[in-house]
Write a structure and sequence with these properties.
This protein has three helices and five strands, in the order ββαβαβαβ. The protein is an alpha/beta fold. The protein has a single domain, classed as 2-Layer Sandwich (Transcription Regulator spoIIAA), CATH 3.30.750.24. The protein has a five-stranded mixed sheet. Strand 1 and strand 2 form a beta hairpin. Helix 1 packs parallel to helix 2. It is globular, with a radius of gyration of 16 Å. The mean pLDDT is about 90.
Length: about 120
């Protein structure tokens, strides 16, 4: 079988999901699922809440996020750039790829802090 003879990849027919809920007791949101084209609107809505919040530190609990595409990281970087000076978005336990993409394309971006504990 040659490379061009391979059948197309099989899809599972599963629609990506992203569930976002408020954190109790502090300013922020918990996200679970995947951030990609099919869930981008939900992700951008969550980031808009972070930008509009009045808290100095807005926490995004991401330990249950399994995937974030580059567009999702770009939306996060854009949201951080819109924050007023002195405010930040704290990413709690993000997927490792998210931190790597941030460092690769937006090194030294103020407004985002990563917490692994």
């Amino acid at each position: 079988m040659h490379l061009h003879d391979r059948p197309p990849p099989r899809t599972t027919g599963v629609t990506p999901r992203l569930v976002v809920s408020r954190l109790s007791g502090r300013s922020g949101l918990r996200a679970a699922g995947e951030v990609e084209l099919g869930t981008q609107v939900i992700w951008e809505g969550a980031l808009e809440q972070a930008v509009r919040a009045r808290a100095e530190v807005y926490r995004l609990e991401l330990s249950a996020v399994t995937f974030v595409d580059v567009a999702g990281v770009g939306a996060l970087a854009a949201a951080a750039q819109r924050l007023e000076e002195g405010r930040l978005i704290e990413l709690h336990c993000p997927p490792p790829a998210l931190s790597r993409v941030l460092e690769m394309f937006w090194p030294g971006l103020s407004g985002i802090e990563v917490s692994l504990s």
